[in-house]
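#help-structures
NK: newbie question, is this the right format to request a structure? protein is Glycoside hydrolase
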Amino acid sequence: MVSRDVGKKLAYLITVLCAFCLGCASPGAKPAEISLPVQDATLYLKTPWQVEPAVQKALYRQFMDEYFSCWNEPEPRVGLEAMLEAFDKAKLSPGLAENLLPRSSKWYQDLADLADFGDYPNRAWRGLTLGWVEMRVFPTAKPALYNADRPGSMMFDSLQQSLLHPGMPVFVHHISKDGAWLMVQTPIAWGWLPVNRVARLNRTQASRWQSGPFTAFTNDNVTLKDKAGRFVFKAGIGCLLPVADGPDRVLAVRADSELRAVLVEAVFDRDFTANHPMGLSSKNLAVIVNRLLGSPYGWGGRYGNRDCSATLQDLFRTFGLWLPRNSTDQAATGRVFSLDGMPDNKKEALLLEQGLPGLTLVHLPGHIMLFLGRDGNEPMVFHNTWGLRVVNLLGHEGRAMLGRAVITNLRPGRELLLMPQPEGFLVNRADSFNLLVDRGDLIAN
């Protein structure tokens, strides 16, 4: 039998040991340790709605203007100014190489020399991406990393611009000195693509592609094959391809030996497609959200995955509703409600009162989420996130990993011992939400 004094000493030693372990270990939590609600968007999008057809038609016109803006309104000077500014900033904060050793400003100067801006622009033609392509900030596949001690530092490459879908329109303004990279204007950003990942179109091909109508893909990993049964590529949510002349077919693009575009008819599983734009309703939105749930997180499209803003952009691209590529710009779309300086419970109350489920974005610095509705008195959001902030007893910061698209409340991880509260909660850092349409644009469905 253990005496009371010995028991107290034993309890104290256990407490000290636990504190020591928590203080020395890298803070984090396995995904299974984070409590999540039921992952089904239909449970939170409870009130049926549909965007008024005339409103969606207007949104679609705006969408198509944005989607083909690089072909119709090429702006070479805008791209040059943005690129020169990016090089200047990179030299001031060079980051780390893939071996986690510091980059030098000379490394960036060498890239600037390779870019050959003295001869800019030396190209001017319309193109289409060949399969999935990772667009880079500078003409290199090498990374620039930051904060090597943080979990997942290799994921966050500051030179990763975005992942481009197959058959996305681009305008080529420039080719690098070595002929390996193309500087392009795209619907979502400027950047550099490998020269063999873009097919050059003639005027007839570009006109045919742009004239549509389009098919939207409503699931990831949909295989496309040509009429001879040969693999073309896999399409995913957010991919748009023109309807072909043949039944149940779309146009896809290949390239000849000179990288000139060859348009081919492709067949696919029609169960995972819709005429574009898909009707924007609570029912259809829930279908696409549920198909995105669980998809891995990928900063800037790394490894063919999506980050928070790309997830929402692909979701709403299916419905012909244009969203910019980054979270800050997305948060400025439509009617904006500021949450600055408000207590957390007031933020949640205002979102529940004024938010339109499925059509409201919630922003916090560096992150964007979609408000789905409520679970009791709690707002529920859909978002693709790397992880939740945790801090150990020595103040070392880490991440409780989620690493995928999930539905959560605005206080996920509150059950975690190392979660700083309330500053670790999403709601604590939320600074605004914005309505993508007006309440009067909706009709009961």
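mod (FA): yep, format's fine, and the tokens are attached above. The radius of gyration is 24 Å.
NK: thank you!
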